[in-house]
Design goal:
With 406 residues, the chain is of the alpha/beta class. It contains 14 helices and 8 strands. The chain has helices spanning 6-15, 21-37, 40-44, 48-52, 60-67, 100-119, 123-128, 133-143, 154-163, 176-189, 198-209, 220-223, 269-297, 349-358, and strands at residues 83-86, 89-92, 240-243, 308-309, 321-324, 330-338, 362-369, 373-380.
């Protein structure tokens, strides 16, 4: 059963003052104060005593666990931080060092690493950091609230995705960031939530669905006795990527004729667009994964950091991803995806112009999002003379420019 009144839930969330202007002001103030009190310069001078006690019982641990609960709750025992108090004395966490000085120094360096990685949107660097997961995810969302989602548990992320209709396999922490991106894609696919902060959207998720802990209150959707989902797109994060090395064969070209008796089922275009956006985003993430492996295999591991997801910042580039060819030149990749067995896709004028402009450096990666695996097929220089008989390109819409006489 689909949740067709998603926007009514969103409006209810706003109208019932579930996220008031007072909440927003408190949230903004907490973010600002933490960034001021724990910037890089302050962190470099942070002592073990300030971590545990701070000033007037406002130590780092208290700020992260208690004072900033509005930003998002975390359940991290004090013994999991770098140093902690026991029997009236500061003790080291052996994971970070065998003395108070070593442990506090190492923990401080890890915090600075989180700060720098967060500001650079470097999720891989954050993932490798040895600070407890929920703690580092919360720090990342405080240091860069516009990029990171304030949901700090992979269990909670998976729970929300399942509520949204995704098929989720496993709870490996390596999936945390890719899966939060799917939630953020959901946020950005709706005209209302797209304008919200990531924090407000996270609050909406908890409002709608509650949390996976049985002891906590059910969310609005389940509280009403409904077992509804928003969409039915599957999650493809755990599926194997397979490269299908096959060329193109000639395609039958059919002339389109007007049929006055033709009938078609009415399409929910908004829902279809949301689904296409999500599938496209998943396909792009898988292509980036594939490109990293390809560059490593051909001995260009040093160029992996040159892979750029251009579609995040520029919809008019005519391609989605910029990568590197075997000879070191740039590769321009347009990603197309399907969840069916049909090998067809829509092409914008800009994409065709880009393909003709870049020639041999332009590729289309066709991604089939199957139930068992993900298949990637590639077409190099698709608009070359060689491929003219192998692609049936036909217009489906026209833009008409006119001038009316004054």
């Amino acid at each position: 059963m689909k949740l067709n009144n998603f926007e009514s839930y969103i409006l209810k969330f706003d109208n019932e003052d579930k996220y008031s202007i007072n909440d927003k002001n408190k949230y903004d103030a907490l973010i600002k104060d933490f960034n001021k009190d724990y910037n890089k310069d302050k962190l470099e001078e942070l002592t073990a005593e300030q971590m545990v006690y701070g000033n007037n019982d406002r130590g780092l641990y208290h700020r992260l666990k208690e004072e900033t609960k509005l930003i998002g709750s975390i359940d991290v025992r004090n013994t999991n931080y770098g140093v902690f108090e026991k029997d009236g004395k500061i003790q080291p966490n052996q994971k970070f060092g065998d003395t108070v000085e070593k442990a506090s120094n190492d923990f401080r360096k890890n915090m600075i690493d989180i700060l720098e990685a967060s500001m650079n949107n470097d999720e891989n660097r954050i993932a490798k950091n040895t600070i407890p997961n929920t703690l580092k995810y919360k720090m990342a969302s405080i240091y860069n609230p516009d990029f990171f989602l304030p949901v700090y548990s992979i269990q909670h992320v998976n729970f929300f995705l399942k509520c949204l209709g995704y098929e989720i396999l496993g709870e490996n922490s390596k999936d945390y960031f890719p899966r939060t991106h799917i939630l953020l894609d959901e946020k950005n696919s709706n005209s209302i939530t797209k304008e919200w902060s990531n924090h407000k959207f996270a609050r909406l998720l908890y409002y709608l669905f509650g949390s996976p802990k049985k002891t906590e209150e059910l969310g609005e959707v389940f509280k009403n006795g409904e077992n509804e989902v928003l969409i039915s797109t599957e999650c493809y994060m755990d599926k194997e990527i397979v490269f299908v090395d096959s060329g193109l064969s000639n395609v039958e070209k059919r002339e389109r004729k007007f049929n006055p008796d033709k009938k078609a089922k009415k399409i929910d275009f908004e829902k279809q667009m949301r689904k296409n956006t999500l599938n496209g985003s998943i396909a792009e993430e898988k292509v980036i994964e594939f490109e990293k492996e390809r560059l490593e295999k051909i001995g260009r591991k040093i160029d992996i950091n040159k892979i750029k997801k251009v579609s995040d910042t520029n919809d008019a580039a005519g391609y989605d991803i910029k990568s590197i060819n075997e000879d070191g030149s740039e590769r321009y990749i347009e990603v197309k995806s399907t969840v069916t067995n049909k090998y067809s896709f829509n092409l914008s004028v800009n994409e065709r112009l880009a393909g003709e402009h870049y020639g041999e450096r332009y590729w289309i990666y066709f991604v089939s999002l199957g139930k068992e695996k993900i298949e990637i097929r590639t077409i190099n220089n698709p608009f070359s003379e060689e491929h003219q008989e192998k692609l049936d390109i036909k217009p489906i819409n026209y833009q008409v420019d006119i001038n009316f006489e004054k």
